């Protein structure tokens, strides 16, 4: 496909077309759906994290007011596991269907579910169910490195050269362990499921970042053909990865609807959000760096271990970026898993890269200090010419420019390296920085575009908008190709019955969806030109299709403004309501890569430190992002700003704490699990380099959902070191660390 170099809409700051629906409260989120005869489900959660259920007394709950049914292992009916799969299909983190056996493996595991007339009745009854359990000591130990793994030895993830020899021979070395705690996804929209069953077909209103996968998983787990399941997610109040794959509550809602023949709503409580819908796992990482006296890296070794649940293997993949970020002849990345009595971990914004870069970019800062070298210079010095892990070129990498532009915008040249040497208004300043990267990819996508007689267009794709602006960007792509204004384009997504579209994960939607929508728009345009040359009464009747073009919503002779006929007029003459086209784009996964697709960035952070009161604030962040062409700067900037705020949370506040005796997450609410809010938000300066990556797609777009969070936490802890001389390697930074 041709490169799209110029456009009236692509790259133009365009307000979200779904904005008015959201701010007026008319956008329908999953839990907003209501149907006649709707019942409410509330799960019964285990209050131990290791053991077996000896007996469950549901008789009392069954007699409580409004209770319609109490389901558990004996009466929930058939539920199945998903078969093994490869690629982006049939993905579910927790493979065991709820109630499959009597073993409790984590705190909050669902052991029964109550269905009642009102949510209050369901909750009251659920809380009255008494389970007698054989309780065993849970394992939620905090130390991961050095603990027995699920495999005999760690997995080798990437290797080149002789790292051990280079580390031994090195002039300058860093060897340190970095830890991140469990972080819990806390989108404001709770996970929810409204299940409707008509005796044959399930219609599931879900909080899903992947409606097509969700349909396929639910069909397997319910034991019905995929045509008998439809998953709808019109709007999402974000998800951060927690809503990528189905969780047990969705299956429970569907099973209850099946058993009762009535619609059932199940909204996961904030407390349950800490138990049963995933989290970023705790990770320990040992980083060893070796360099020449002049700062050239000679070896990089990263050994990470993350916790996973008792049954499933979730690999955080912390070494994803390490193999290609810097030039080094010797490299080794290993990973391992340790089982804990916790719910299943899952992808959380920038999985792997975000914790991985916290460790690597902290270690790079420590190396710069050991070398007495500027940290920006250290990174510039080790910039690779190609992806050394795969020996292939980068599609489009402008890391050096990220670093130099960021330095300039931040004023890095004014930095004095001595600890605590910079002051402003009586505060000690700390300046730190980090480099970052995130993978770019396309996944298989189909889309349809319809051009209508009323002058509007409709574009449909089975993807979803997590809040990042997918509705708007889809409209922009159609508008670019057809000339129909963005506000006349009806974007239809969030429905598994639409042509299969990409997951809202990996920051891949924009790169994946745009080529399919572009092709669909072009194909619809071609059909329109056919109508123009074939219809009686058309001024273009008898012309050849290649003599015509669709420009600015009009059909005309190529290059001739005069005699242009509006698209709507052509369709009226042809007496058809609409013409349509479909488009497909393929994926970049699977095949051996010829180029290395990634986004890059540089993060600069300023902290202010008041030793007298032990007050630490992140005051300023400058972020420069190389994420290909930015199709819509408004939501793109918004994504990066949101990620920076999340990075402040990661560095300073976020940590899910478990009670070692019960295995319960104890700060399971938004008062005790502290996320960064407006008052914690620094001044944020976002710059996009905006170099199109035409090898990834015709529009040159990569994606911005996750890259903004990568590197931020280390930029902040590096700044904390600069201000205080204290190296925090164990997130989050606690005031106690600094006293
Ligand atoms: Mo993102 S963690 O791939 O939703």
UniProtKB/TrEMBL annotation:
Superkingdom, taxonomy of origin: Bacteria
GO-annotated molecular function: iron ion binding; xanthine dehydrogenase activity
A Pfam family assignment: MoCoBD_1
Oxidoreductase among keywords: yes
UniProtKB keywords: Molybdenum, Oxidoreductase
Signal peptide per UniProt: none
InterPro entries: Ald_Oxase/Xan_DH_a/b, Ald_Oxase/Xan_DH_a/b_sf, Ald_Oxase/xanthine_DH-like, AldOxase/xan_DH_MoCoBD1, AldOxase/xan_DH_MoCoBD2, AldOxase/xan_DH_Mopterin-bd_sf
Enzyme class: oxidoreductase
Sequence ranges assigned to domain Aldehyde oxidase/xanthine dehydrogenase a/b hammerhead in this UniProt record: 24-137
EC number: 1.17.1.4
Residues annotated as transmembrane: none
Protein name, entry field: Xanthine dehydrogenase YagR molybdenum-binding subunit
Organism in which the protein naturally occurs: Tunturiibacter lichenicola
